[in-house]
Amino acid sequence: MDEQATFQRPSPDSLQVSLTGSLRSKVDNYGVNVMVALYENGLITDCPKGENQGRVLSNDFVVRRLEKLCTVKDIAAKKTISGTINFSLWEGFNPAKCSMALFVQNPSHQIFGLQNFQLPDN
What we know:
- The structure is a single chain.
- The protein has no helices and nine strands.
- With 122 residues, it is mostly beta strands.
- A four-stranded antiparallel sheet has the order 6-3-8-9, with no helix packed on it. The protein has a three-stranded antiparallel sheet with strand order 1-2-7, with no helix packed on it.
- Strand 1 and strand 2 form a beta hairpin.
- The protein is globular, with a radius of gyration of 17 Å.
- It starts with a strand and ends with a strand.
- InterPro entries: DUF1223, Thioredoxin-like_sf.
């Protein structure tokens, strides 16, 4: 994948991401889904019950939102694809702790490519 991302904040509780790029290989008639995950690092979980009772756990790469950008079938390598996703944001959203991953997966959920994007500070 070779994608470019543009980020906008149309409101304090939403993030709009526009993506344009191309897949590096041909896609057959079974197709692939181009997926986008918004994830957060540095989460802290205080565990009052269960096997981790009394522990404080730190968690990274927690997917907070997952959306399908598009489905692609029967296209040649290097053909341009594009799309826009609107993510609703959660209370306490901090762009400095978050990133976005774009990945391509087939109908069997096998992943063929991944690209990571840092979010802008504003």
